[in-house]
Specification:
- The chain is α/β, with parallel strands linked by helices and 259 residues long.
- Helices cover 32% and strands 20% of the residues.
- Strands 1-2-4-5-6-7-8-9 form an 8-stranded parallel barrel, surrounded by 4 helices.
- The longest helix has 16 residues.
């Protein structure tokens, strides 16, 4: 029985083959760690972007939305994402999905102590540097940092192991896409629409203008706090939003495949 549980992740990884799972470049798993199988539920549905919130606690990076009272059942970033991604890439000949040359995005949301969290993250990434897409290396994984962003530290780090999740006011500031591959903002900052009926013209115009500005700089656009349903996803993708936030992974997969 013990051997079965040891081998299970590798059995799952073996199913990430062409024709069985179709990679979906627009699919972003919001709060991915809250699913039954963090990372692997997203991978089994073809998602190419996942989101993990982390706290620096006692010199370790823990994946959790809120600071836990106890660490007993709280997993680390290495346990849930770094080592599993390494295993997947190793099993799939250097790619997250065999035959998919696009980047797989790991968005890490810093919840506390941005400078200390960044230093610990860079330390923990050293054994996994071969996975990363940087200025000098075309690895399969792009990590970008959101939340409490240590902007100066990331922009001034010549190794460039991770990049920034930008904000609209970062556009036009001369920040290259390798340092800021994605620009994100709250959908609510653009106006109110709950997904029912036609989206107001002024909100649609703001989305289009923002996506055009991001694309002009080679960056992707992500909106959070969006209505989470197919009708809304259709409006968003039609107006240039690149990464669609979803909690229901199978519903977004069905929507994207139907297009």
């Amino acid at each position: 029985m013990k051997a079965f549980f040891v081998l299970l992740p590798f059995v799952f990884i073996s199913f990430l083959l062409p024709g069985q799972i179709i990679p979906l470049p627009n699919a972003h798993a919001h709060n991915d760690y809250e699913h039954d199988r963090p990372l692997f539920d997203a991978l089994s549905n073809g998602f190419t972007s996942v989101e993990a919130d982390i706290f620096l606690i006692k010199d370790e990076l823990y994946v959790t939305h809120n600071k836990p009272v106890s660490l007993k059942n709280t997993k680390t970033l290495t346990e849930l994402y770094l080592q599993p991604l390494n295993d997947v890439v190793k099993a799939n000949n250097g790619q997250v999905y065999q035959g998919y040359s696009g980047s797989f995005y790991l968005m890490i949301d810093f919840k506390n102590d941005p400078e200390g969290t960044y230093a610990k993250l860079i330390e923990q990434l050293q054994p996994y540097k071969h996975l990363l897409r940087t200025k000098t290396q075309d690895g399969p994984v792009t990590i970008f940092i959101s939340g409490e962003r240590p902007i100066g530290a990331i922009l001034n780090d010549p190794e460039n192991l991770v990049s920034l999740d930008g904000r609209p006011n970062d556009l036009g500031q001369g920040i290259n896409a390798d340092k800021m591959p994605v620009v994100s903002t709250s959908f609510k900052s653009l106006g109110f629409w709950n997904g029912n009926g036609e989206i107001p013209f002024d909100i649609r115009l703001k989305i289009r203008q923002l996506s055009d500005a991001a694309h002009k700089e080679g960056k992707k656009l992500r909106l959070w706090a969006t209505p989470d349903d197919p009708a809304s996803w259709q409006v968003l993708i039609n107006n240039g939003v690149d990464l669609l936030n979803a909690d229901n992974l199978t519903e977004l997969k069905t929507f994207l495949l139907s297009r």
